[in-house]
Specification:
It contains 15 helices and eleven strands. By secondary structure, it is an alpha/beta fold. The strands form two sheets. A nine-stranded parallel β-sheet has the order 9-8-7-6-5-4-3-11-10. The protein is globular and about 90 Å long.
């Protein structure tokens, strides 16, 4: 009897240990909850049961990363990059899974549409071995999936692609075809690729080119009302993000997206590409604005030539990001963590540019921290990085501790200032009320004419003052230069 009872107790304990674990609380900076993130050394606490599959839990990582093309990842040069990364603050890599040509960079056996159209171009010949090496080094892996700029899919599936008014396949000024963001089959294809990337071992799926082409040829495109159903470009891009996020997040896949930096605070740019910053941030784990200084036109943020002022440009762009997201944040709703792309290339195609090296890269990183953010990724299309701009692991740890202390001090000072202000306002209100209650009210009999005259004089004086102030305001406006927002989409191959 005792043995039977002991067996029942043991079985009960085992069953209790196999129940679903709750997701880890998000970090404060995500805007999702103020709970602290706790980590458990036991692998079982990092799993989520979905059906019969056990999926890894999402674990927040403060990414400091670099981009690696699919071609580079499959070449001997990849090993040289990993050797450079070793011992530095870099803890993540963004690797092409679906590149700018629409080709899949490694074998995807469980992706039926990929197989159907022959999209694989196996730059990475042994993905399991590459992934094992990255995991062994403790590197966080992000799969870059180029979305709607997909000339390969467009050629293979013209019915899923943008068409001109004469019915021909639309091509941009570079001769590349784009798939149609309004086409649901395209959405499912992108989710298919994202799921396959996760199965291959990637920690995160990052969508790029989730937008419309911006060149002048778009005037030739005919959109079918049966497909658009009255939805604007921004409507459909946000809908896609929501759809992809729900599908991938249900499998515990972390999802991020790259967006133009110039859409932040610019409705003109947002409508042109179809990206509304705050709306997209509502349906992502991470949002990655491409705020390369070279992408901003002269005069933006009051800077004559933004490319020549990397710190000022990045700081201004991220201050605008913070303001935009704070204004639109909904109580109790999640909002993506901001993880910007930074420039590690020289924009020699610009008339006013500077060479980017150690100082320029480090200035951008400092601007990220000074703006209150913690994560960043460096972009170099050629994968040639300024390695001496990076800190060692120990230096980065010391820097992080210093930043944390500084932020804590600033927070305390800000809190104290707010409390002092509130106390002063409360004291002033009490004194004003007391003075009003004790001040004697003089008794005076005035004729209606005297009252009206006094009122008229006061009104005339007020009107004159307002008129003068208005004239001064108009003169001031004429003297000031209005901000200019320009979307830069052309230029060197160094640009995304």
């Amino acid at each position: 009897m005792k043995r039977w009872l002991l067996a029942v107790i043991v079985c009960s304990l085992v069953a209790a240990g196999c129940g679903r674990y709750k997701e880890l609380p998000e970090t404060i900076e995500s805007g999702k909850t103020s709970d602290e993130v706790t980590e458990d050394s036991s692998e079982s606490t990092q799993a989520e049961t979905v059906g019969t599959s056990v999926l890894p839990q999402k674990k927040p990582v403060k990414v400091k990363g670099i981009y690696i093309s699919g071609y580079m990842a499959g070449s001997e040069g990849f090993q040289a990059i990993l050797d450079k990364v070793k011992g530095t603050e870099i803890n993540a890599v963004v690797i092409d899974v679906k590149n700018d040509d629409g080709r899949i960079t490694f074998a995807m056996d469980d992706a039926p549409t990929v197989k159907e159209i022959g999209a694989e171009k196996k730059y990475i010949r042994d993905m399991p071995a590459m992934m094992a090496q990255l995991k062994e080094r403790g590197i966080y892996t992000i799969a870059r999936v180029v979305a709607f700029r997909d000339p390969y899919l467009a050629e293979q599936k013209p019915e899923w692609s943008l068409k001109n008014k004469d019915g021909s396949l639309h091509r941009d000024n570079q001769g590349l075809a784009w798939v149609n963001p309004y086409c649901p089959e395209v959405w499912d294809y992108l989710v298919e690729v994202g799921e396959a990337a996760s199965e291959a071992g990637f920690d995160e799926v990052q969508f790029d080119y989730i937008r419309f082409s911006t060149d002048s040829s778009m005037k030739q495109v005919a959109f079918d009302e049966n497909e658009t159903k009255g939805r604007s470009k921004t409507d459909i891009i946000t809908e896609f993000i929501q759809y992809a996020y729900e599908k991938l997040s249900a499998r515990n896949i972390t999802v991020s997206a790259d967006v133009f930096g110039t859409i932040i605070g610019s409705n003109v740019d947002a409508q042109a590409v179809g990206q509304v910053y705050s709306d997209m941030a509502d349906h992502l784990d991470y949002i990655c604005p491409m705020i390369y200084p070279s992408h901003y036109g002269d005069g933006n943020f009051g800077i004559d030539h933004p490319d020549t002022k990397p710190y000022d440009t990045i700081r201004a762009a991220l201050n605008l990001s913070k303001s935009d997201l704070e204004k639109t944040r909904k109580d109790g709703a999640s909002q993506a963590i901001v993880r910007p792309w930074l420039q590690d290339f020289t924009a020699s195609y610009l008339k006013h540019h500077i060479s980017y090296g150690k100082k320029e890269v480090r200035d951008q990183i400092k601007a990220v921290y000074d703006a209150g953010y913690d994560e960043w990724i460096l972009w170099s299309a050629s994968n040639r990085y300024t390695w001496d701009a990076l800190l060692s692991e120990e230096e980065a740890k010391e820097e992080a501790e210093k930043i944390a202390r500084l932020r804590a001090t600033e927070e305390e000072e800000s809190k104290a200032a707010a409390e002092a202000k509130a106390e002063a306002e409360a004291k002033t209100a009490v004194e004003t009320k007391a003075a009003a209650e004790t001040k004697p009210v003089p008794y005076k009999v005035e004729s209606q004419a005297e009252k009206s005259l006094e009122g008229s004089v006061a009104a005339e004086e007020t009107a004159a003052q307002e008129s003068q102030a208005g004239e001064e305001s108009q003169k001031s406006k004429k003297r000031s230069k209005p901000p200019v927002v320009i979307v830069t989409t052309g230029g060197s191959r160094n640009e995304k």
